[in-house]
Amino acid sequence: MKKTTWQSYKKPSKIAIFIFIFSLLATFYLSSNIKDEIVKTGRNAVLAKSEKISVYLQETMSRSVFDLYTLQSLYNTNKEINYAQFQKFTELLLKDNDYIRALEWIPRIESDSRISFVAKQNLQFDGFQIKELMPNKSLRLSSHKKEYFPVNFIQPLKGNENALGLDLGSNKSRRSTLEYARDTAEITATEQISLVQDKASSKDFLMVAPIYENGTIPTTLELKNQTLKGFVLGVFQINSLINRVNVQAQEEGLLLTLVDLDSDVSPLLFGQALKHDYQFDIFVPQRSWQLQLTMSDALRTQVLSPPIYNWAIFVGIIISTLLALSAFALSRISLDALELKILNTKIKDHNQNLEAKVQERTQSIAKKNDELKSNVNQLTQSREALNKLMHELKHQKEEAEQKSIELARSNKELDEFAYVASHDLKAPLRGIDQLASWIEEDMASNDMDEVPEHLAAIRQRTSRLEKLLIDLLDYSKVGRHEEKLSEIDSKKLIEDIFILNAPSPSCKLSFNNHFPKALTVTAQFELIIRNLIGNAIKHSDKEELHIEFDCEEENNAYMFSIKDNGPGIDSMHFDQIFQMFKTLKPRDKVEGSGMGLALVKKVVNSYGGNVYVESSLGKGTTFFFNWPKTLISE
Q1: Which of 183, 282, 488, 514 sits CB 3.0–4.6 Å from 289 for a disulfide?
Q2: Average pLDDT over the chain, rounded to whole?
Q3: pLDDT-derived band of residue 612, with 50, 70 and 90 as boundaries?
Q4: Taking 80 as the threshold, does the pLDDT of residue 345 lie above it?
């Protein structure tokens, strides 16, 4: 028998090495793809958390603007407000609110009224004087000027005494803010400032809202300057404003930075200047703030270097080694079998006595072949199990992504409802409470002249609150698709809804093209038509309103449109009109909850459709939406 040499192992070794290298490459390729998918999923999760944090900060800022709007409304609806009324009203706004440092009333005082104004204020505040702010941050008695803008009322007074009587017009930066708010009739925010009443280095900013005579906004700059009564002002603490957001960011492993992009002096409002991963624009009246979020080292390591990647490499190396060893053994046994067959022939020629030994050797080889086949079968089963595991992992990943999308949508809707509870539901209740207190004061003074008017206002706000709650309930039901299906004549349904809206004889309805007579719908299709017709009638500014419906057939849906000859909509408001509680006119002028078009959009989207608007000012408005040809009952 020949001795075993390196040449006998050369060919099996090459095969084993080839299989080992190929398996390793496949392992690294698959592991890299798995890592990329996990990192992508992790980044998307962090992005979703970052967006939620930015939305929360924007809502907090919107609440601040809303509080200042509320104080502005008080002065717009009353000719004179005394200090007691100012205190009572602002205490409600400041209750449970830690980021508003103070609310102030800043009247406009002309030079010839200075003496009488100061004398009147001394009856309320001992030692009151109009002061001006010097460049070194000190205060002194104000010099003679054409007009002054002193701090008249301030709440809370404690801790803010130094600001009482301060002429905001004596500081160039604050005066430019007052002039901009006066000329634009809009709420305007300052950049980061230092307060005269704060000796510490806190970060604050102001928001001012102009007040004009009779509570109406003049049409020209000259009238705005002549009729300006003064300003309501809010002092906001940046650290308190962003503290809750920062706590939430830290819990998620994110580092937060807030920057004022419009400031050249002190743009950094909060945090540290870092190379950020995500950025979001925050709306502040007349300024551009940016929220920047950076992953912490721990979170970055968790997202970019998932532990499962190392385990996948380790398991792949083990499998590759087993495959290489199996291939080597199979090749070696095959060569041994060939050599044994040749040797067996030679042995039979030389000595038949060795036949028994050869037969025994052959049986041994057969047994090894059976064992090898068994090993190969087990390896095949292991590979099939691995493939099945990969398919299950992919399926679970897809389910996780879908649940993440659904969770994000659910969180967004929940945030919108929370916003309503904090603002749109809160505002009518505040108004009702204020009116009730006025009625109580009138009854106490036996002055009943304004009581009917206050009661009517209470009924109006109660009705508005009821309408808002009904629309909220309708909005929450959209997307469930629990309604029964029915077939209707679409044209007749539109005519019936138009009649139920009880328009005046000057309101006309017309149709184009052919409308489906057996359209499968739910009750929510009627909700779409009712809101679009009601919207056209409600906003009409013409003596004769003309509403025109059209319908075109598409592949799997019908495209409906409703056109009116109303006032039209500026293209800059196209996105705003489909948002919840957004109206282009004050709700005192156009009765409604601001939910109509938001309901329409949500219903259409829930059935896989799309809704959009085409319009220009003075040329009417056309709304388009599509409805599926076939609906399946769920």
Answers
A1: 282
A2: 81
A3: very high
A4: no
Q: Is 387 exposed, middle or buried (0-12, 13-18, 19+ CB in 10 A)?
A: exposed
**d(Cα 348, Cα 350) in Å, to the nearest integer?**
6
- The tens digit of pLDDT for each residue in 115-172 reads 999 999 998 888 899 998 888 778 899 889 999 999 999 999 888 888 898 998 888 8
Specify the pairing of strand 611-615 against strand 621-628. Answer: antiparallel
Contacts of 347-356 with CB under 8 Å at 24 or more apart are none
The DSSP symbol for 192 reads: S
- What does the alpha-carbon distance between residue 566 and residue 564 come to, in Å, rounded to a whole number? 6
Q: Give the Å distances, CA to CA, from 487 to 10, 266, 484, 522, 562.
A: 79, 64, 10, 9, 21
- Packed helices 297-304 and 6-76: angle between N→C axes, nearest 10 degrees: 130
Burial class (CB in 10 A: 0-12, 13-18, 19+), 164: buried
Crossing angle of helices 6-76 and 355-422, in 10° steps, is 10
Closest CA to 468 of 588, 603, 602, 581: 581
Q: Tokens 């944090």: give the residue.
A: 53
Specify whether the backbone of 295 is left (phi greater than 0), alpha (psi in -120 to 50) or beta. beta
Name the one residue in this structure whose structure tokens are 């408005």.
621
User: At what angle are helices 238-251 and 6-76 packed, to 10 degrees?
Assistant: 150
Phi-psi region of 159 (alpha: psi -120 to 50; beta: other; left: phi over 0): left
Which DSSP helix (H) or strand (E) runs through 488? strand 486-488
Strands (E), 218-271: 228-237, 254-260, 268-270
In the prediction, which pLDDT does 1 show? 45
237 vs 203: CA distance, rounded Å: 6
Sign of torsion over alpha carbons 535, 536, 538, 541: positive
How far apart (Å, rounded) are the C-alpha atoms in residues 75 and 212? 9
The full DSSP string for 489-545 is: -HHHHHHHHHHHT---TTEEEEE-S---SSEEE-HHHHHHHHHHHHHHHHT--SSSE
| Low-confidence winner among 315-319, 392-396, 405-409 (lowest mean pLDDT) | 405-409
